[in-house]
């Protein structure tokens, strides 16, 4: 219960920070079954003048001028199993490394501000997944550490699944709104 409360408070703090501050992040995925690079299309609301410092999400790695987030692996944890002891739904856990590129204040929870997880199992509406409890106690102390310029800190995050068959799309965003790209993760 205490672990769930800590995760909820942390997620709330990060979302508040993300809505009031500007920043970017980067990410890499080893277990990425089919990743795509998002290319802004003219007239889609995205900045059509992508420069060398424009954020990218390719092969599971989100790179921005301020940080880099690299997904190193993912796994499904059923309710009641280690890493999801307090959950009532299965979760997908993403393990990742966050590197501070620019020296701007950042921590491993920047993941929440830069990614949205979806499970496309509803024909009528987008199914955005909820953040679950921290799936690995090793990161309990380090998940909110401020990362020094050039430093890298490992962490993990979990999203509650609605089923165990539909792949999860991890969408990298620029400030929670503009999509940069996505990677799909199989659950089996």
TrEMBL record:
Residues 48-173 form the DUF5067 domain. The keyword Signal applies. It holds the Pfam family DUF5067. PROSITE patterns: PROKAR_LIPOPROTEIN. The keyword tRNA-binding does not apply. InterPro entries: DUF5067 (IPR031989), Immunoprotect_excell_Ig-like (IPR029050). It comes from Nocardioides scoriae. This is DUF5067 domain-containing protein. Keywords: Signal. Residues 26-59 are annotated as: Disordered. Transmembrane segments: none annotated.
């Amino acid at each position: 219960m205490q672990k769930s409360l800590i995760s909820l408070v942390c997620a709330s703090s990060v979302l508040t920070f993300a809505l009031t501050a500007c920043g970017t992040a980067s990410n890499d995925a080893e277990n990425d079954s089919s990743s795509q690079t998002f290319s802004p299309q003219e007239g889609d609301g995205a900045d059509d003048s992508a420069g060398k410092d424009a954020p990218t999400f390719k092969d599971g790695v989100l790179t921005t001028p301020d940080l880099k987030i690299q997904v190193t692996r993912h796994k499904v944890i059923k309710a009641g199993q280690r890493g999801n002891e307090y959950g009532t739904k299965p979760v997908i856990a993403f393990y990742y490394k966050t590197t501070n590129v620019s020296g701007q204040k950042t921590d491993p929870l920047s993941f929440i501000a830069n990614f949205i997880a979806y499970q496309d199992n509803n024909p009528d509406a987008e199914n955005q997944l909820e953040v679950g409890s921290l799936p690995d106690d090793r990161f309990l102390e380090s998940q909110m550490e401020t990362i020094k310029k050039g430093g890298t800190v490992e962490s993990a995050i979990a999203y509650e699944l609605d089923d165990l068959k539909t792949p999860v799309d991890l969408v990298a965003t620029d400030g929670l709104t503009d999509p940069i790209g996505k990677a799909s993760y199989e659950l089996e």
